[in-house]
Write a structure and sequence with these properties.
- With 250 residues, the chain is an alpha/beta fold.
- It folds into two domains: 3-150, 3-Layer(aba) Sandwich (Rossmann fold); 156-244, Winged helix-like DNA-binding domain superfamily/Winged helix DNA-binding domain (Arc Repressor Mutant, subunit A), CATH 1.10.10.10.
- It contains ten helices and seven strands.
- A seven-stranded mixed β-sheet has the order 2-1-4-3-5-6-7, sandwiched between helices.
- α1 links the parallel β3 (26-31) and β4.
- The longest helix has 16 residues, at 82-97.
- The chain starts with a strand and ends in a 6-residue tail after the last helix.
- 40% of the residues are buried.
């Protein structure tokens, strides 16, 4: 079961079935100055990612050096030096935790800061208005090596402008093939084509676009086109909601 480390105390977390398959056992570093938000998020993460050992810190200076599977930082866009602060924080944490992916939890909305975070190469952004279920799903994706960004960030904007070669032109899959693929993958209730079901399967495993492209033998641009079409069909606004099958009743 997951564990939360706070000072010298460890708190066992109850087991909850994971959404994205088997998670890697490892260290999750959470840096957030607000104690209530920090402790509440830590316990929620531990409850849903049972292989994670969550270490909580109020300041980046207190982080114990060592490899980590994922680093999460709380970001307050209301600070006058928010952009400079988050850049310095990311640089410090990369020195302390190696190549661990870094995710950001925003306390309020700020489009300019979200773009700054994207430019820094972080793994994903959890926005303040997200429900607990969506926030945990985003963190799970980052935990297994995936990424999660709001639609206005460049990585998601690429869906709309993605191009693919004529040899990879998307044709509607026969209904029988789509239904058969859906049954094999357990997605028979979703209005997706055979290839979209394949993409969804890898998406729910937290795979990045380039990995999905390699596994399916198609280009990364084609994967983005599939994702764009899936978002429309599922009434989803980002890849996390697609992975959760959101919007089916919309």
């Amino acid at each position: 079961m997951g564990l939360v480390r706070k000072s010298s105390w460890w708190y066992p977390a109850r087991w909850i079935p994971e959404t994205f398959g088997t998670a890697r056992r490892g260290r999750l570093v959470l840096v957030e100055s607000q104690a209530l938000l920090r402790d509440g998020l830590a316990h929620s993460i531990s409850a849903h990612i049972r292989e994670a050992v969550v270490e909580c810190y109020g300041r980046v200076e207190d982080v114990v050096p060592g490899p980590a599977t994922l680093v999460l930082i709380g970001v307050d866009p209301r600070r006058n030096d928010a952009a400079e602060s988050v850049q310095a924080t990311c640089q410090t944490l990369r020195g302390l935790c190696g190549e661990a992916p870094i995710g950001a939890v925003l306390r309020c909305d700020d489009a300019a800061l979200r773009r700054t975070l994207g430019a820094l190469g972080i793994a994903g952004v959890v926005q303040h208005e997200a429900s607990l279920a969506v926030a945990i799903a985003a963190i799970q994706l980052m935990w297994v090596g995936g990424s999660c960004f709001p639609p206005d960030l460049s990585r998601d904007d690429e869906y709309a402008s993605a191009r693919f070669s004529p040899s990879e032109a998307l044709e509607p899959a026969p209904v029988a093939m789509a239904q058969e693929s859906g049954r094999k993958n357990g997605y028979s209730e979703l209005p997706l084509t055979s290839r979209e079901c394949d993409v969804l399967r890898f998406l729910r495993e937290g795979r990045q676009n380039k990995i999905i492209a390699f596994e399916l033998g198609i280009s990364e641009s084609t994967v983005k086109v599939h994702l764009r079409n899936m978002m429309k069909k599922l009434n989803a606004s980002n890849r996390t909601q697609v992975a959760l099958g959101a919007g089916l009743d919309g």
